[in-house]
Amino acid sequence: MLAKEDLPELVTVLMASYDVIAPGYENGSIVLTRITSVDAIATGYRDHQEPGHYRIEKVNDGSYFGYNNGMESPKTFLHPARLTLFSGQLQPNGDFTLAEEPGIPRRLAFFGIRPCDSFAVHVLDKTFLDNPNVDQPYRRRRDGSFLAVLNCTSPGNTCFCASMGTGPRAETGYDLRMTELTEGFLIEAGSSRGHEIQGQLPVRPAPATLAKESERTLAEAVHHMGRTLNTHNLPQILRGSLEHPHWDFMKTWCIGCTNCTIVCPTCFCNETLDYIDLKLQNTSRERVWDSCFAWQFTEMHGGNTRPDLKHRYRHWVTHKLSYWMEQYGVFGCVGCGRCLTWCPVGIDITEVAATVRGKRR
Fold it and tell me: What is the largest CA-CA distance in the chain?
């Protein structure tokens, strides 16, 4: 167990070896940001999330992390929204030199992320690493990264990680696992690096009563999720319901703004752009986030394979909850609820899936 007043020491120990990414407060929202001091971590806030609604307030209830996920996830740092893959320059002697994207100077430590986001990193690993064509920019950021995960004891109204098996407790893939309780933080190491960091902290054995309180709190969190999703046979049901009438309704509701794919911790679609200056001396190739909701995404010389929002929204839902399971053995959705909160028209993917399932029956 780590006393609450000693939590800054954990962050200081991490900063000695890593660039620490932690929750901060900025412009009325919780954001993930690189911190250079413990004071930059957002503490003493509580958020209110509904479909299409996000508000945060300052509270004085003694909690450090009383809020849920903000817009950003580890994806922002492991798979950046805009990344220069390489640049080239024409030299005065006529030679042309290329420089590859250099990666990052220090390893990344993600501090205080929730179990759904740590599982999302696992999903991204399957996309970028667990195949013959390893994505090198992702690998350079992911190698040696440290995950200090905070178990979720007060899930929000748009959360459904319990349905997806990704929370509220981190089960695998963490270096340190923390649970915030009234008396302090229960700290558990999940890797050799986690044990090394833990060994530098003023921790003490947790009383049996605190361990029981942790179990009770996490069990209650499962029942306090704002949303649920029945995933039984869901991939098969969605695959067999491509002509369900609800997709026609969704094209009148969805506005194609791409917010859901931007805030999603596992969406990885991107496009590549080439730039060259007017003097034909400097060039660069950049990778930028894209979205399957953009009509240009599937435009090609022979037409467009998903010409309207019915097809694009259907593809997004079925990819998350059906095809991804076929490809990688996991759902592409981790139940974080971001797509509900930051959808300007309040679309709820759990209701969409339930409607398709129910009508099919």
Answer: 74
Query: What domain count does the chain have?
Result: 2
pTM above 0.90, yes or no: yes
Which one-letter amino acid corresponds to residue 206? A
Residue 251 lies in a domain: yes
Residue 286 placed within a domain: no
What's residue 361's pLDDT? 36
Report the half-sphere exposure of 347 (CA within 13 A, side-chain side).
Answer: 24
Nearest to 267 by CA among 123, 88, 141: 123
In this structure, the answer to whether residues 299 and 319 fall within a common structural domain is yes
Average pLDDT over residues 235-244: 94
Residue 218 and residue 249 share a domain: no
Same structural domain, 66 and 211: yes
Would you say residue 282 lies in a domain?
no
User: Which DSSP string do the residues of 76-103 spell out, in sequence order?
Assistant: HHHS-SEEEEEEEEE-TTS-EEEEE---
**pLDDT value at position 114?**
97
| Residue 3: φ, ψ to 5° | -65, 150
**Domain span at 174:** 4-83+99-223
Residue type, 68: N
Question: What amino acid occupies position 147?
Answer: L
Amino acid at the residue 74: P
Helix extents (H) in the chain? 7-15, 75-78, 115-128, 136-142, 161-164, 192-198, 208-223, 234-239, 246-253, 259-263, 309-318, 324-328, 338-341, 349-360
241 and 148 fall within a common domain: no
